[in-house]
Amino acid sequence: MKQINQFDNAEEFFELPNSWRDKGRKEGREEGLEQGRLAEKEEIVRKSLEENLDVDFISKITGLPVKRILEIKEESDL
């Protein structure tokens, strides 16, 4: 009977929230979302450059520095 009680406690232990795991998942989601936002901005830069929009204007719209926009322009051969 003592072994059964120990097992019951073990189940309760594993059902407790794991704060480190939860924190890691939250940070991972936030990092993934940030990477997605950056990728989207860079795609907007590429499309804007294809339309021959002004680099300063693209910077203002996307919030990316002019230097990064020029790097994207070089990388994309635009």
Summary, kept brief:
This protein has helices at residues 2-15, 19-50, 55-62, 66-75. The protein has 78 residues and is an all-alpha fold. It has one domain (2-75).
Sheet-strand content, in percent, reads under 5%
Cα-based radius of gyration, to the nearest Å: 24 Å
- The poorly predicted ranges are none
Number of helices: 4
Q: Share of helix among residues?
A: over 70%
**Count of spatially separate domains:** 1
Q: Given the helix and strand composition, which structural class is it? A: mainly alpha
- The residue-averaged pLDDT reads 85
Order of helices and strands: HHHH
List keywords for this structure.
mainly alpha; 0% strand; rod-shaped; Putative transposase/invertase (TIGR01784 family); 78 residues
Explain what this protein looks like in three dimensions.
This protein is an all-alpha fold. It has one domain (2-75). It is built from four helices and no strands. It has helices spanning 2-15, 19-50, 55-62, 66-75. It is rod-shaped. The chain starts with a helix and ends with a helix. 6% of the residues are buried. The model has no long low-confidence stretch (mean pLDDT 85). Residues 1-35 are annotated as: Disordered. It comes from Psychrobacillus insolitus. This is Putative transposase/invertase (TIGR01784 family). Residues 20-35 have a biased composition (Basic and acidic residues).
